[in-house]
Amino acid sequence: MALISILCPCYNEAENLPLFWRTLSEALGDSQYEYEYIFVNDGSSDGTLEYLKRLASENARVRAIDLSRNFGKEAALSAAIDFAAGDAVIPIDADLQDPPELIPEMLRLWQEGFDVVEAQRSDRASDTFGKRLTAHFFYRFHNKISSPKLTENAGDFRLMSRRVVDVIKKLPESQRFMRGLFAWAGFKTTVVQYVRPPRPAGETKYNYKSMWRLALDAITSFSTLPLRLWSYIGAAISMTAFLGTLYIFVRTLVFGKDLPGYASTICLILFLGGVQLLGIGILGEYLGRTYMEVKHRPLYVVADIYGENEGGDKKK
User: Fold this and answer.
1) Backbone angles phi, psi at 31, to 5 degrees
2) pLDDT tens digit string along 186-225?
3) Is 126 exposed, middle or buried (0-12, 13-18, 19+ CB in 10 A)?
4) Less CB within 10 Å around the terminal CB: N or C of the chain?
């Protein structure tokens, strides 16, 4: 019988976890598969860890991985993947905006031969207008400049076969954008659509600052176009400056016209200074990520493991 790993990174989800576990158990209760449930507590400050410890003590199929502090969702998801032993794995959020009822359909498509089954949000009415707008522009911009392309409105909720997971586990980078890594692995992929429901309790942990940081990680991880683009901008500005200088030279020396323009000179200096600082900032983003990579720090540190089968790596 095939083993399916359900992976759930948790950060301050104590309000949602009881309902999530009940809904998940009901959705997967009558099944031809065996399940293991891997919860990762990503440094929660509420009652998340206490609930997960109790759940692991009551259910032999549950393991709770307690990280030593908050490492972020990408690291917590990587930890869950490292501990997963299933023939297929399914990352899912505990906020019930990823509906567990979709999992049987994912498993059916996996049995048909698909290695990856992505869950795509067909309706994001439960999100704020600002979040929908920024998500739309992010996917469009990312897919224009990066490779591989991302499925628009598809998050981490998906099914991946064991061979896809084995590829993900071999990837060494510490500055991770997991959706991009999932797409990079490739393999035969299909999509199932669902309507994204609102959270039953609590608030999203992704504010605009977090989304901006994630977008930067996504772009700098899978595209060097911003660096090349600045070379083109520099060449265009240099050519414009050369033509402007030639015009001024002919206008002044040939036609004898004076050359006032203190204000325009100051504006030009400020403009070019701003362009240079922006270019240095973009270069700094890439250099900073390179700096973090060469340190080779672990993605996460495990403080404790609760549950019977304590396999996997404790540090990664």
Assistant:
1) -145, 155
2) 888 888 888 877 666 656 665 556 666 766 766 666 666 7
3) middle
4) N
| pLDDT tens string 131-157 | 667 776 776 776 677 767 777 777 788
| CA pair distance 152, 121, nearest whole angstrom | 8
Tokens 């009881």 found at: 18
SS (H, E, C) 241-295: HHHHHHHHHHHHHHCCCCCCCHHHHHHHHHHHHHHHHHHHHHHHHHHHHHHHHHC
DSSP 301: B
Instruction: Order across the sheet with 302-306: list the strands.
Output: 189-195, 116-123, 154-161, 88-91, 3-10, 34-41, 62-67, 302-306
| Residue with more model confidence, 113 or 223 | 113
> 203 is written with which tokens?
């608030």
Whether 18 contacts 45, CB under 8 Å: no
When mean pLDDT is compared across 10-24, 73-87, 245-259, the lowest value belongs to 245-259
Token match 């996504």: residue?
218
